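in:
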């Protein structure tokens, strides 16, 4: 998926990496992207709607890898039952890099995959206002405003606490 064709109307698949489904391979030196790109139980119709993949370390529930994802028809394999083992072609996802090292925004349910709408992941459920002077989003009483010169302002609701983390250079 190139930047020119990038669209985020689909879903993000969250892969929870345990000892049994890839952690041992990663610890042995295999590339994380090679481990997380495939062999997941998912219907092909659902896989077609996936546009991002987020790998979560099941031990501490933190995001360990993010990627844009396209369903790979050539490697996906029909299952013995109703499930299909799907594989994805991965590419960098700079729009999600800030998630790496943070707690997963999506909880694991009972199997190693979960889903979230990509729009929700990228933009949350913020009420967004854009005018000539600033862009403003309100989420659960928190207000983020970014003015025309790029300066950001955060208003914290009563009882809230703001922690600022900067991205590594």
């Amino acid at each position: 998926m190139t930047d020119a064709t990038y669209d985020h109307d689909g879903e993000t698949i969250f892969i929870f990496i345990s000892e049994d489904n890839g952690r041992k391979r990663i610890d042995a030196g295999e590339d994380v992207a090679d481990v997380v790109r495939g062999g997941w139980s998912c219907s092909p119709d659902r896989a077609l709607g996936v546009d991002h993949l987020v790998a979560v370390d099941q031990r501490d529930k933190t995001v360990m890898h993010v990627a844009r994802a396209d369903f790979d028809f050539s490697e996906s394999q029909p299952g013995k039952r109703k499930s299909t083992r799907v594989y994805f072609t991965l590419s960098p996802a700079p729009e999600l890099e800030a998630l790496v090292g943070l707690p997963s925004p999506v909880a694991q349910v009972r199997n190693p995959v979960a889903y979230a709408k990509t729009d929700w992941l990228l933009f949350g459920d913020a009420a967004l206002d854009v005018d000539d002077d600033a862009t403003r989003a309100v989420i659960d009483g928190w207000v983020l405003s970014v003015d025309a010169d790029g300066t950001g302002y955060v208003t914290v609701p009563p009882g809230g606490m703001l922690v600022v983390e900067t991205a590594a250079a």
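note: Helices lie at 19-27, 32-36, 44-48, 118-123.
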